[in-house]
Amino acid sequence: MKKIHIVAHTHWDREWYFSDNEAFIQFSYHMDEVIYALENNELDYYYLDGQLSIIDDYLKVYPEKETKIKELVEANQLFIGPWYTQMDEFVVAGESVVKNLQIGIDMSKRLGGHTLLGYLPDSFGQGKDMPKIYNGFGITDAVFWRGMPNEVTKSREFYWTAEDGSKVLTINIRNGYYAGVALVEGELYQKKAMLDLVSEDSATEVVTLPVGGDQRAVDRDLKAIIQEVNEQFGTEYKIEESNYPHIFNLLREKTTELPTVQGEFMSGSVSKIHRSIYSSRYDLKKLNDTIENRMIFQLEPLMLMADDLGIPFKRELLDYIWKLLLKNHAHDSIGGCNTDKTNEMILARYKEADQLSYSTIDYLVRKISESIEGIKKNDLILFNTLPYTRTDPYVVEVSTKHADIKLFDENGNELDSQILSTEKVYAGEVRRSESDYDEAKYYYIHKVSFTKETKSLSYTIVTVKEQTGSNESAIPSNAENAIIENEAYKISFSKGQFSILAKNQGKKYENCLYMEESGDEGDTYDYSPAYHDKIHQLLFDTTDVTFQTGPFLSTMTLHGEWSVPKDLEARKIGELNTKIDYTFTLSLSKDSKRIDMKVKLNNQAMDHRMRLVVKTPVESHVSYADTLFGTVERNNQDPHIHDWKTLGWKEEPTEIYPMIHYSNIHDETTSWSIMSKGIKEYQVIDSSMYITLFRGVGFLGRPELLRRPGDASGNQYRYIPTPDSQLLRDLEMELSLIITDDFDPVMIQKEYQTYSVLSPYYQVQTLNRFTNPIQYFQSNKVDQLHPLKKFVDLNNSNLVFSALELSRDGHRVNIRLYNPSLVEEVANEKITLATESNVCLVDLNGDFLESLGKLKEVSLGTFKPGEIKTISIER
């Protein structure tokens, strides 16, 4: 006899085709109903969607309810956490997932404790690293719905493993987290059909049936319904109210009957998976990427440095900014599959998090710089917030009274530099006529590039001296055949085509960069080709080419326009009736392995997709991309791309894949990697990499897509226009190409960090009081800065640096590293500390695992493929 375990729950989208404010009104009453139902024996248990953010919102308005919630949690009636929000697994950074759990668990502690369950019932696919993230928080059980293909396992209960050996006992919900609603609302025959369905793939007699749904009210008659169903079908099924901890305890007794699986799950065979949601609302995803990198690689390390110097670490401020960001990581929010009204509120949170994060950095670098003993006017303080020595060229802006400058190091030696531009600016009170301006009140803003070695997690000082001579600066040149080069590459442009000479390989690659434009008759969930489509290959056919060469930075800039169809109707008749202005800039920095690219577009076309095409010589059937804490290998062609309709799949398994920071293809002779700032989608066709810059669509959901037959996603009963999702505006994308002999994921991630994380800096001057919005305000100096503690340098590490964080008790500094390899161990890894310290290993939540002793040289042992370790060092 099958025993059906009913889990009463709600799935609470913070926002979607409604705003978070609209959802909150319902939740404020819903939570009262939950408390009443549990207190009055209408329900034995209730699972509150595994996220704390909705409770956080509730308690800000109803703080008096905290005691009651805590009582119910401690009585094991109300189950909360461990997440702060129900996040996406494919486009946010790994450290964002860690922060999501850290903040959710920390908040749940004062509310009676969290449920040790990796619960993500509606995420659009399951990332391969989730088992090791869960294990890193002491979580050994997981529940999800979307993405699991039948061909991996027929069983709904199994062990899910990662390549490092992490393992979670997992329930894959049959037919979704709302399947049990049929038990409440269906006719008797529908109740029986549903019980048969959810039972047929269970490996044991323990069957899970969630009863709940999106923003669903409490089912107050659940006990009576269970009794009725037991009376009708008691010979086949025994139904009882239950909870996930109890269910997993029962399943653990059946471990010999359960299969083991590994990998990521993003199949549309049994549920919609929205394999192209990664490119919906690119503008929001880029903002997210910018703020994530700033929070992880700039702000928290800088706050740690400031704390060492005597400026207190503000944990509450850091958590507040993270919460703003994490609210936007809810799977619909980060997906961009929302109404325009909701996306406006998401954008508002991004703007708030953006302003708070960069303002905190601006404040701290100014506070530190102006408090340094002996600091002088025109000193330029450069900060390195990464645990590597930085030698890559700086690009900074400095303000001086005179038009000519030179730079000097701390020993008075002149630094070679390259003036990129100089602008004359007025510092006096503004007037309607510039003829009234006082010539004596003008000053100059110089953009200058130079190199200055800066040790890890430290600062260095460069002095700006004003000169009476003339600066040597690179002058933009126009030429039909433009060429820029550095130590690694020589890039030529002629007659609309690029050629790249990879000097280390001695190979020249012709016509290797161009654009592709095509129709998109999909929606905010899915790209889908237009019913009447034509793909346009867009070359850079322009004579407006300028290039600027210099010892530290060389750039090539193209200006032009492309003619494309304005809308689907124009596309249908083959009319090219609108123009897209573009600026495409390639940059080469001194000693860099990267070709940095910036694309600026004025998008005036609707319902279309634009992709950068990188044509490579690679011969491979697979591609690679980074994951939350590792690397994934994916097939360039899905085995079911031709028979998916016959098999009854929910959507076409187009080989469109997510990347967090980079994608790669390589073979025995060459490796090509594309990194990006906010672009999250790629596809490999033959030997070319197609990187989705953006796509614009006009509806939340559309029915009967070529790639996704059947009902519209989101809301099946009405069209919801989303004109803002057409992205009819100026757009800017940043990417970088690396061509090497071998694929080295550690090198790529390190390059990504130096590429995406700019070094903060501050010039001691009063000419320009608007270098940032808060520069105008007076700030007191610190009476006496403490000496900055030397910490660690990971220049020679064979691992990826992931995070530097202060423990929640403030007594330890945690540094997180991982091995991104799929197959190779990293053995005998060591880090050397500046001073002998007490060292231990902690888990992802910062909880103690193992003491390593008082050490200066720390042996980290062996890192298995994909393994994460967090080293905790006493301050």
Automatic annotation (TrEMBL):
Organism classification: Bacteria, Bacillati, Bacillota, Bacilli, Lactobacillales
Span of domain Glycoside hydrolase family 38 central: 272-350
Keyword terms: Glycosidase, Hydrolase, Metal-binding
Stored InterPro entries: Gal_mutarotase_sf_dom (IPR011013), Glyco_hydro/deAcase_b/a-brl (IPR011330), Glyco_hydro_38_C (IPR011682), Glyco_hydro_38_cen (IPR015341), Glyco_hydro_38_cen_sf (IPR037094), Glyco_hydro_38_N (IPR000602), Glyco_hydro_38_N_sf (IPR027291), Glyco_hydro_57/38_cen_sf (IPR028995)
Name the record gives this protein: Alpha-mannosidase
This protein's record includes keyword Metal-binding: yes
Swiss-Prot/TrEMBL GO biological process terms: mannose metabolic process; oligosaccharide catabolic process
Keyword Hydrolase: yes
SMART domains from the UniProt entry: Alpha-mann_mid (SM00872)
Family statement: Belongs to the glycosyl hydrolase 38 family.
SUPFAM superfamilies assigned to the protein according to its UniProt record, in alphabetical order: Families 57/38 glycoside transferase middle domain (SSF88688), Galactose mutarotase-like (SSF74650), Glycoside hydrolase/deacetylase (SSF88713)
GO molecular function annotation: alpha-mannosidase activity; carbohydrate binding; metal ion binding
